[in-house]
């Protein structure tokens, strides 16, 4: 029930987002970094489609310009389930309990960022604690970066943190150097 309403709104919103020349105010999304990246993403999407996924908006890639793509009914045997697309691709998985949702969220070798949406903030915090990711946003998008936040992931999404004070520890090799100018007060 909730998924159907969410998907309907997501399709409507995704249709309104245009990719293209990033200097144009009409384009919210820019282009992919290379034709090779476009080919890779197309392969991931076609694999999912061939294995039963539903792509309600289709696949629209022209050279390095890719329109946002939704993938519904994604399953573990699809490449896109396990690999990061690095493109404007959103997958939707249905689940029937919070516990099942947590299992799905953690069923990945990656763990950079996650998001939990709920009207019950206490419950959302409990869910966030159980998701294995370096960052978890409650009621906000996974793409969120601020200068004061320690940015970094878990698992294959990276080690350590950067940003704010975390950068000092991560990008510094702490050493202790002493200089002895006179004999110690105890015998060695």
From TrEMBL:
Alphabetical keyword list: NAD
Superkingdom of this protein's organism: Bacteria
InterPro entries: Ald_DH/histidinol_DH, Ald_DH_C, Aldehyde_DH_dom
GO molecular function annotations of the record: oxidoreductase activity, acting on the aldehyde or oxo group of donors, NAD or NADP as acceptor
Domain Aldehyde dehydrogenase span(s) in chain numbering: 2-177
Keyword Protein transport: no
Keyword rRNA-binding found: no
Signal peptide per UniProt: none
One Pfam family recorded for the sequence: Aldedh
Family, as annotated: Belongs to the aldehyde dehydrogenase family.
Name of the protein: Aldehyde dehydrogenase family protein
Source organism phylogeny: Bacteria, Pseudomonadati, Pseudomonadota, Gammaproteobacteria, Moraxellales
């Amino acid at each position: 029930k909730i998924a159907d309403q969410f998907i309907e709104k997501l399709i409507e919103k995704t249709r309104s987002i245009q990719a293209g020349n990033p200097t144009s105010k009409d384009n919210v999304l820019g282009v992919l970094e290379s034709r090779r990246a476009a080919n890779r993403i197309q392969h991931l999407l076609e694999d999912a489609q061939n294995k039963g996924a539903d792509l309600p908006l289709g696949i629209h890639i022209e050279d390095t310009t890719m329109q946002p793509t939704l993938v519904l009914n994604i399953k573990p045997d699809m490449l896109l389930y396990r690999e990061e697309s690095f493109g404007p691709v959103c997958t939707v998985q249905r689940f029937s309990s919070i516990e099942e949702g947590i299992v799905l969220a953690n069923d990945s070798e990656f763990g950079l960022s996650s998001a939990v949406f709920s009207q019950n903030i206490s419950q959302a915090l409990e869910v966030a604690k159980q998701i294995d990711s370096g960052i978890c946003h409650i009621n906000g998008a996974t793409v969120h970066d601020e200068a004061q936040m320690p940015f970094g992931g878990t698992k294959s999404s990276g080690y350590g943190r950067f940003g704010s004070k975390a950068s000092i520890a991560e990008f510094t090799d702490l050493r202790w150097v002493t200089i002895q100018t006179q004999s110690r007060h105890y015998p060695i």
